[in-house]
Specification:
The chain is mainly β. Helices cover 5% and strands 62% of the residues. It has one helix at 3-18; strands at 36-52, 55-57, 65-82, 85-102, 110-113, 117-127, 132-141, 161-173, 176-187, 190-193, 203-207, 210-220, 225-236, 239-241, 244-245, 250-263, 266-277, 281-295. The longest helix has 16 residues, at 3-18.
Length: 296
């Protein structure tokens, strides 16, 4: 496979990798029923050096790649009980902008509405006294976002995505909790892949499941402030174009640091992270997230 082909494929699956289901500290804690919340998020990521099979590539056009992605996301959620168990559902509406720069500046960027996400979670076990929680969630991403098959960069993916996740949280000592979650994302096919698949006409893109494991400590400083740190391992996600397997498995390790503040008017959270190790694709050198959530 040529380096040019690898470039196009990596740009194509970039939104999929960044769309892993990252949990904030205490997301595994079961919600109180009968509550509705709105959350607004700003997400900024930067991807630079390109890797192939764990080795950095510097030949053209990889001399100084730079991909900046910004997203504004509105999430509306409501909590309830289902057969006596805590549950929550939400609707997520994103708007995004992708700006290639450096040695990728000849590629046009993209902006517009992203793919709508629907999600529901259920807690088979929750105990507020012992601070032990086990939750399960399902996510569905709809192909509603802006998409042009003649562009390599697109905010929407023109395919369905499905994700199942399980998470567990319990105390370690005093105000320190530990959490672990595992999710697997499945992808529907994209039958209108042209530019990103290096085809003059539309061809089919298919992708194998992508599994993410995340774990880390959560420390409650006091009633107002909470800190968290998460380690992520992402595996799988290789693609097939037409009938040709592309051998571009993602084996990525990254981290995310979180700081949350709970005020009477709502919750503010700041998060920062980056890739620690990557096998194939452009390394993420920055992930910065600001969120505000409030009850209504």
């Amino acid at each position: 496979m040529s380096f040019r082909h690898l470039l196009a494929l990596t740009l194509l699956i970039l939104p999929s990798i960044s769309a892993a289901i990252d949990l904030q500290p205490n997301d595994i804690v079961a919600p109180q029923p009968g509550k509705s919340h709105a959350m607004i998020s700003y997400v900024n990521t930067e991807n630079t050096t390109f890797y192939r099979n764990g080795t950095a590539v510097s030949t053209k056009p990889y001399g100084s790649p730079d991909i900046n992605t910004q997203s504004e996301i509105l999430r509306l959620s409501t909590s309830y009980t289902l057969q006596g168990l805590p549950a929550v559902s939400y609707l997520q509406l994103p708007y995004g902008t992708i700006k290639p720069a450096g040695s990728l500046s000849t590629y046009p960027g993209a902006s517009g509405i992203g793919d709508v996400v629907l999600a529901s979670a259920l807690w088979p076990y929750s105990n507020r006294d012992t601070r032990k929680y086990f939750g399960m969630a399902g996510y569905l991403s709809l192909p509603t976002g802006s998409y042009n098959s003649q562009q390599v960069f697109n905010v929407g993916e023109n395919r369905y995505k499905y994700d199942l996740q399980m998470g567990y949280q319990q105390p370690i000592i005093e105000n320190l909790d530990g959490m672990i979650a595992v999710d697997t994302m499945w992808f529907g096919g994209n039958s209108q892949c042209a530019a990103a698949c290096l085809s003059a006409t539309n061809t089919s893109l298919n992708q194998k499941p992508l599994t993410t494991t995340q774990l880390g400590p959560i420390y409650k400083v006091n009633q107002t402030y909470t800190l968290g740190a998460s380690y992520f391992y992402v595996a799988g996600g290789a693609t097939t174009i037409g009938n040709t397997y592309q051998n571009n498995v993602a084996n990525t390790q990254r981290y995310l640091l979180s700081a949350l503040a709970y005020y009477p008017f709502g919750r503010i959270s700041l998060q920062y992270g980056r890739d620690m190790e990557i096998k194939n694709g452009f390394v993420e050198t920055r992930r910065f997230i600001v969120r505000f959530a409030t009850e209504f």
